[in-house]
Structures are given as C-alpha cells and as structure tokens.
Design goal:
Blueprint (H helix, E strand, L loop, with lengths): L8 E5 L4 H12 L3 E6 L2 H13 L4 E5 L7 H13 L4 E4 L14 H30 L5 E6 L12 H21 L4 E8 L20 H13 L8 E4 L10
Parallel strand pairs: 1-2, 1-4, 2-3, 4-5, 5-6, 6-7
Helix pairs in contact: 1-6, 3-4, 4-5
C-alpha cells in the first residue's frame, strides 16, 4: 500500500496578534499542521493550547524578528516537529504615526527592521524548506501582510506606507525568483482593519474591515490550485473616505 501523504504544515509568524490568531485558526481548519510564533512565551503557549484543544496539531515557538538568528531558529524548530513547510505567513508588523518631516530616523529603524528586514530574514530562512516540500506537494505558498497604503500612502504614515510597498514588492520578487521551485507568494493588502494598528483612530462601528476578512483571504489563497498565483490581493472598504483607505 502507498503511504498517505503527510499533512501540509505551516508557520505563522506574529500569530498572537488579532489578525494572526484568526489566520492561525483558519490555517488549522484548512487541515494544516501549524507552528505559531510570537515574542511572548505565555501568549504563544496560550494560543497553541487553544488551537490544540480544538483538534489541531500545533506547536508554540518563541522568537523575535529583530533577532538576527531567530528566523532560522523558528524554521528549524518547525521542521524538527513537522518535517515539512508548505506555507509561511508573516502577520507581524510595526508602525509609527509621524509626518515625514518630523520622523526621528534613529527611532524609526524598528519599523523598517520589523516590517522589512525581518521579513527578508524570514524568507531567507524559510525558502529552502519551502522548496523541499514543494517537490512532494506542489504549491508551496508565502503570504505577507501588506496594505492599501503601499500604493496610496496616508498622511502621517509615510514610513509605514513605504515599508508596506516594499512588502508587496517582495511578494512579486518571490514569484519571480521561486516559480521554478514551485513556490508562490501573495501580499494581502487590505484597507484599514479593526486591529491594534487602528485602535487610536476615530471610527464608527463597522467602519473598518473586520480581521476575519483577512483570515478569509488566507483561506481563499489556500484553496486555489497550484497553477494559480495572486501576487497582490487588495481588499478595500466600501465606506472608505479620502485619506483612510
């Protein structure tokens, strides 16, 4: 008898945030084994326990994208448990609200390092494992969280907008460089989402996108055939106004 194929396995970075938790639950519901990661042991363990109790094969991993060796350690820890890597989702991010003329460049390095440098380090660590898994199960996938401000910057968020433009570009670069290795990438670019990022913004109930819409977008991407590729998936709001995508 032919052995049943191993279940696909995923690594969600930044899993303990609002969007990250919903994405993690959606990935498990789609049949993936899962490593959830974050910077705080207690939060990561609690999420892992909750998803495991719901029937998932889940393990917690602790790491900070600002640590140069953390990304490689996260991938190694994931592979040690599950032996394959079919999906990487980076749901981590940082922002700073400040006009471009007022930016403190030194203090802004964290935004660049988390949103861009950390993502590059994660990709460099994960791509070899994704290539390996794509040889036995076509359609390995990278999902990065971008934003509509990547193409339509918002006043006061110049640096954040620039890093999200870079994320969208990185997804296109993965598609350009890794197609022959069976790897696809998508940058999900939503308008304003009801999340920690928008907590300080005035709004009406239901004005911003629910985080569940982002999890649904992940499910949509997972259900596509390996032949399909979506470089950037934009999700705008029906009630968006000028300066608030």
């Amino acid at each position: 008898m032919t052995a049943a194929p191993a279940a696909p396995a995923a690594l969600v970075v930044g899993a303990t945030g609002g969007m990250g938790q919903l994405i993690s639950a959606a990935v498990v519901a789609e049949g993936y084994h899962l490593s959830v990661t974050g910077r705080r042991q207690g939060e990561v363990q609690e999420l892992s326990d909750r998803l495991t109790a719901a029937g998932g094969a889940v393990q917690p991993l602790v790491g900070d994208l600002l640590d140069p060796v953390a990304c490689a350690a996260l991938v190694s820890g994931h592979m040690a448990r599950f032996g394959r890597l079919d999906l990487v989702v980076n749901a981590s991010g940082a922002t700073q609200r400040r006009l471009l003329a007022e930016i403190d460049v030194q203090r802004s390095r964290t935004v660049v390092d988390v949103n861009l440098t950390g993502t590059v380090a994660l990709l460099a660590a994960a791509l070899p494992a994704l290539r390996q898994s794509a040889r036995t199960r076509p359609g390995a996938l990278v999902i990065l969280l971008s934003s509509l401000v990547a193409a339509n910057p918002v006043s006061g968020y110049a640096l954040y907008s620039a890093t999200k433009a870079a994320i969208s570009s990185l997804a296109r670069s993965v598609n350009e460089e890794e197609a022959a290795n069976g790897i696809r990438a998508t940058a999900i670019a939503p308008g304003f989402v009801d999340s920690a990022f928008t907590d300080g913004m005035a709004r009406q109930p239901g004005e911003f996108l629910p985080a569940s819409d982002i999890a649904e977008a992940v499910c949509f991407l997972l259900r596509l055939s390996p032949t399909a590729r979506v470089p950037v998936l934009e999700i705008s709001r029906t009630n968006a106004e000028a300066g608030r995508p």
